[in-house]
Structure formats: C-alpha cells, structure tokens
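User: Sequence recovery, please. Input:
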C-alpha cells in the first residue's frame, strides 16, 4: 500500500458556518437576557398599607343609643307595673273569696236561727192548740153524755184513752212523711204508736200488726181511743184513732198531713179496742 494512501482522519469534521452562526446567535441572546436580569437585580416588594376608617359616633347615633336605653327602661317599668297589677288582682280575688265564705257562713247561721225560732213557735202553737182541743173535747164529751151519746158510741175520753186522744189531737197540722215517727211529721202507724205510748202501751210499728191487736168492735159502738183500720184486720193498709164525737185523727197523706175528720170523710173498714 502506498504511504500516500488515504487514511480516515480522527478529527471531527468541521461544522458548517451557518450552523455555527445560528448557535452563536442563540447563545448570545440567552446570555444577553441573563445579563439584563442580573443588572436589574432582585425586585424589592413594596409594602402595602390600607387605612380603614372607623365610624365615629355622630349626633344621630348618640340619639339612637339613648332612645334604645330609654325603651329598655320603659319595658322594665311596664313589666314591674304588670307584676304589681297581677299581685293586686290575686289579692282582690282572695279577699273576695274570703268575704263570700264569711257571707255564706253568716247566711247559714241566720237560716239556722230562723229555723229554730220557727220550730219553737210551731211547738208553742201546737201546745196551745192541744190545750184548747182538750178543753173542747171534754166539753163535747160532757154534752154528748147529756144527750145520751152519739151514734158511734161514747164520745168522752176517760182515763188512758184521754191521754191517747189528747196526744193525737195535738199533732193535727203536722206533715205526713212516709216512715216518720215524729216529732213534727208522721205516717199513720207512727202517729198511732206514739199516741198509745202516752197510755203506756207499746204497739208494733206496722199498721197491719196494730190492727191485729186488741178486740174487734163494731163501728156503731166506738169509744175514744179505739184504733180504726182500713182494709182487712191483720192486713190493713191504714190506721187512725177515734177521738169521739164521730171524728178520727190520722196522718192521712202528704197532701193533708195530720187531720181530724168525721168518719164519713173516709169510712173505716173496722176497729179494735185496746183500752
């Protein structure tokens, strides 16, 4: 091989002038930018200050605050006044209740006194009536005896019969109340039982039992003090006392009360004699 033969070179091939120029321009631009930035230096942050204006209390705001305080005070006064009014109303209601209770108590006491006075007056009137009727009965009995007696037998009560008749007549005017045995109201058998107690005779309480006692007598031969009955003997539904002169005394019903009536007013079924 010739010493002048071509041997590949190890050097880098030269770049074209256009490429070199391009690279140089880019690099220069970059470096120029860096240089400008460096010359300028880091930017200093400028402090930010902002002033906030606070509202000032002007005359209008001061008036509003004063009005609010005055309104609050007025509400407090109103509440206090309401509380006082409520307390006064409660006291008035309590006083009225106490006054009413006292008035009711006085009215009740007055009514009780009136009732007691009325009862005393009725008792006095009854006693007076009894005395008058006893005198009249004695006079009538004497007159009947002089006349030979009545068609119903003897009309003058004597002995124990007089006490029975006097008690029965003394109750005339009293009320009739079923089941009552006195002293101011009676039923028929209650009156007969109480009248016979004046003669020391204890009768049963029921009219049917009372009519079963003693001895049967004719209605034409009655004597004062005989027990009259209506219905069958031992099964009677009503009883009364023969008081002489053709009359009887009995607790008839709630409409008439205790009355003295002639036998013709309500003719009895029969009679029994215990005296």
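Assistant: Recovered sequence (275 residues):
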């Amino acid at each position: 091989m010739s010493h002048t033969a071509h041997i590949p070179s190890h050097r880098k091939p030269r770049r074209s002038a256009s490429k070199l120029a391009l690279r140089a321009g880019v690099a220069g631009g970059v470096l120029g930018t860096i240089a400008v930035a460096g010359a300028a230096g880091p930017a200093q942050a400028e402090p930010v200050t902002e002033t906030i204006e606070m509202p000032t209390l002007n005359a209008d705001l001061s008036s509003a605050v004063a009005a609010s305080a005055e309104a609050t005070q007025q509400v407090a006064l109103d509440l206090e006044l309401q509380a006082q009014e409520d307390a006064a109303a409660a006291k008035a209601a309590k006083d009225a209740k106490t006054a009413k209770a006292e008035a009711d108590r006085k009215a009740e006491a007055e009514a009780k006194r009136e009732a007691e006075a009325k009862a005393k007056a009725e008792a006095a009137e009854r006693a007076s009536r009894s005395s008058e009727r006893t005198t009249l009965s004695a006079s009538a009995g004497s007159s009947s005896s002089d006349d030979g007696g009545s068609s119903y037998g003897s009309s003058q009560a004597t002995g124990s019969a007089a006490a029975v008749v006097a008690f029965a007549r003394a109750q005339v005017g009293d009320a009739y109340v079923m089941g009552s045995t006195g002293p101011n109201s009676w039923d028929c058998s209650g009156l007969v039982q109480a009248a016979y107690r004046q003669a020391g005779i204890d009768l049963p309480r029921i009219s049917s039992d009372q009519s079963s006692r003693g001895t049967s007598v004719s209605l034409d031969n009655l004597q004062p003090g005989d027990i009259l009955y209506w219905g069958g003997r031992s099964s009677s539904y009503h009883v009364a006392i023969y008081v002489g002169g053709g009359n009887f005394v009995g607790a008839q019903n709630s409409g008439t009360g205790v009355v003295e009536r002639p036998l013709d007013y309500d003719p009895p079924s029969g009679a029994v004699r215990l005296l």
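The helical segments are 17-40, 59-146, 159-170, 188-197, 207-210.
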